[in-house]
Sequence to fold (175 residues):
Amino acid sequence: MSPRVAPPTGRPAASGASLLLGTALIGLAVVSVHDLAVDRGWAGGPSWTGSLLDAADGLTAGTGVVITAVAAVVVGLVLLVAALKPAPRTHESTPGPSDVWVTRKAIRAVAVGAAEDTAGVAAARATHRRGRVVVTVQSDRPDAATHVETSVREALAGLTTHDVAIRTTEVKHDA
Fold:
């Protein structure tokens, strides 16, 4: 028997921030290489960081500086939370000893397909959350719920152990 593996996950919450920070670091590297070339005499012109430091010289803790500092702290805390937040799970394990994974969308599709194949069902849709698959069907038969539930449970037998609930709405036909 093979050991259980970790469930498949989506992108971590910090992936977008990592892309932005990586781009900013590349920009910082370009500025550093430019200033190195100017300092060594390989290129002409003023140093970009020197100009920035000259402009910031004599800056006091005014309102603008405090607001910028608070904003930087807030952004840092948001990035820290995003970095520590786990990646969302994208699949669920099927019952049994094998390492087979299925998406919630696939479970909903199988449930809807089984419900729509039941006699007397005009339309069906499904939701799947918190360990429960809820199938809503439109039918003109009063006993459709029991037939749909049996059909959906049989279709989902090897995919999930979640509870199945059936909701019916009556379809009225014009006479």
Remarks:
- The chain has two domains: 15-84, 92-170.
- The beta strands are 91-93, 101-103, 121-129, 132-139, 163-170.
- The two ends are 61 Å apart (CA to CA).
